[in-house]
Protein: Secondary thiamine-phosphate synthase enzyme YjbQ
Amino acid sequence: MPGTLTPVRTAAAATVATATLTVATRGTGFVDITDEARRFVAAAGGRHGTLLLFMRHTSASLTIQENADPDVRVDLVTALDRLAPAEAGWVHDAEGPDDMPAHVKTLLTGVSLAVPVVGGDLALGTWQGIYVAEHRTRPHRREVVLQFLGEAG
Structure:
């Protein structure tokens, strides 16, 4: 038996709500924006639908990762540094030696997410959080566009 499907619920996508979240980073690492995403959905009156998140930069990204053990995020930074090290002989270095590796890390991790909203809450797993991944070594102000599509109530 392949799996069990919960009862299907249909609704017209009558609501589109949009806002921009500005996130101050401290340099390379992860910033948890799960609470801000939840507040946005609540402010939009979102009941059932989809939360879309889009990073408006090419050297930072978005990811859903474990929110219980901070060592996971430390290890992820290490893994990304191994995949795209600063000293790899990149041609593009107009903004410094961390610039091109940051673009590669963004390519690997992505700039958009879609999270289901069910009953007014994000349908994240128990240990999942939504993060901005900063791939540059110095602090930045990053913009994330949040958009709820679905049924409001």
